[in-house]
Amino acid sequence: MDLDKHFVKYEAIVSMIDQVFDRVKKEFPKEVFCREKCSDCCYAIFDLTLIEALYLNHKFNEKFSGNEKANLLAIADKTDRALVKMKREAYKKVREGADQIEIVGKMSQERVRCPLLGENNLCLMYEYRPITCRVYGIPTSTAGASHICGRTNFVQGKAYPTLNMDKIYTQLQLLSAELVKDINSTNIRMHELLIPVSMAMVTLFNDEFLGVKKDG
After folding, report:
1. Which InterPro entries does the UniProt entry name for this protein (predicted)?
2. Rounded mean pLDDT of 5-26?
């Protein structure tokens, strides 16, 4: 499958996000804490949209091979199993009557080391890191709730330029939907998939996984 045209569109969104981050950092240099080897965001739990997962997987397979790749995949597999267990327990609590918003809030406070965080506390795929990683140090909002990195100097309750992540996620979902339609997938809802970084690394995104129709 040739997904280059979809990746180009994704990279355009990434470029726009980087410009927003740079603008906020320039306007609030004392508030934005982001610097080399600050890995606070590398322990956050979040999922990728389909287009992000495919892009990260593609770049990972381009960059790594041999024993280095095998070792990273082993770490990613271990991380993924831990996340599955964590999510299964959260789902069980919701089924038992726990407040879903409260459970999601607790999940967001969990700390799991990203399999792409190197021993030197630097991202092994920094140039191809997901959008969530790129915006972590500036004020963002999702579903009307604001979020700031715990290490920034932004003051809670004070007004700052805030990136609406709901709009970004909508763009990514639409791009994913366009990709699913373009590859003629039998799974028309595949664009709704949310995939952790660890799973994006270990998954074989072949025709069978993506539900690509075979000729004839």
Report:
1. Puta_zinc/iron-chelating_dom
2. 97
